[in-house]
């Protein structure tokens, strides 16, 4: 007799969990509740798209998931660790260790080359420059930036800078990648190669992805599509 574990894929660990996540902004005399008791669970290797109208709170949510902002109420746990329990320095180390960011403002360092920018998270982590740059070069190859690895951000197009940011986000082999319109500036062929790279990482490295997008094709490519509305997430589609 075949055991269950030999036939069914193992249920993977929860990599990201939000409970009762609430963010209220104070605007003069009144409070604006943007996220209101939001719940979310993303497993290792799962890719989730978050869609929603402008102003629905997608950026607010990404900032809370990445520990760039603190919730008014509720909590975010990543790889079993509650972000609220971490002080600023520990949070910085935790981010470097577990989270890859691809946000719309790439914040590449202008005086460094594409290669140096992509290697930076590993250098910050204490890895030697040569080893860090070898890994960064591999990632730049995968995003089609091998020819321009020695150029500085000012000498790159918007889409090229975006690809360097993607390489930088993935170079640390993160548990969770948070992306805001990751393929927005890219042509179809380049976007397709980035999606293939993400698919590969979800499978081989069990990386979890949360991808904010207005692009229906990018959303439809993910395992689940969640819609942010009224401060909470509701499942719009499930493809897995
Ligand atoms: N620091 C802040 N102080 C007060 N209100 C804020 C602040 N940041 C965001 N908001 C408000 O919170 C709401 C959600 O903003 P957010 O940027 O998260 O939306 P979004 O879904 O990412 O929008 P878009 O798709 O247009 O980028 C908006 O009404 C916005 O004006």
Automatic annotation (TrEMBL):
Gene Ontology cellular component list: plasma membrane
Cited Pfam families: ABC_tran (PF00005)
Keyword terms, alphabetized: ATP-binding, Cell membrane, Hydrolase, Lipoprotein, Membrane, Nucleotide-binding, Translocase, Transport
Enzyme class, spelled out: hydrolase
EC assignment: 3.6.3.-
Sequence ranges assigned to domain ABC transporter in this UniProt record: 16-240
Top-rank taxon: Bacteria
One annotated GO molecular function: transmembrane transporter activity
GO biological process per UniProt: lipoprotein localization to outer membrane; protein localization to outer membrane
Entry protein name: Lipoprotein-releasing system ATP-binding protein
Family note: Belongs to the ABC transporter superfamily.
Keyword flag NADP: no
Lineage: Bacteria, Pseudomonadati, Pseudomonadota, Gammaproteobacteria, Oceanospirillales
């Amino acid at each position: 007799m075949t055991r269950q574990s030999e036939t069914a894929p193992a249920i993977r660990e929860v990599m990201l969990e939000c409970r009762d996540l609430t963010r209220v902004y104070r605007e003069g005399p009144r409070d604006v509740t943007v996220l209101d008791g939001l719940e979310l669970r993303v497993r290792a290797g799962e890719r989730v798209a978050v869609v929603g109208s402008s102003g629905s709170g997608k950026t607010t949510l990404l900032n809370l998931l990445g520990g760039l902002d603190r919730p008014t109420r509720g909590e975010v746990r990543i790889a079993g660790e509650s972000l609220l329990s971490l002080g600023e320095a520990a949070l910085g180390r935790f981010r470097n260790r577990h989270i890859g960011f691809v946000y719309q403002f790439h914040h590449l360092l202008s005086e460094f080359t594409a290669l140096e920018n992509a290697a930076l998270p590993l250098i910050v982590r204490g890895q030697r420059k040569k080893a860090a740059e070898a890994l960064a070069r591999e990632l730049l190859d995968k995003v089609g930036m091998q020819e321009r690895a020695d150029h500085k951000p000012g000498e790159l197009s918007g889409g090229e800078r975006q690809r360097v940011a993607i390489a930088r986000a993935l170079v640390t082999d993160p548990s969770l990648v948070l992306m805001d319109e990751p393929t927005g500036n890219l042509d179809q062929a380049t976007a397709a190669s980035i999606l293939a790279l993400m698919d590969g990482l979800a499978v081989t490295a069990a990386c979890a992805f949360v991808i904010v997008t207005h692009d229906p094709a990018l959303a439809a490519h993910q395992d689940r599509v969640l819609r942010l509305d009224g401060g909470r997430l509701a499942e719009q589609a499930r493809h897995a």
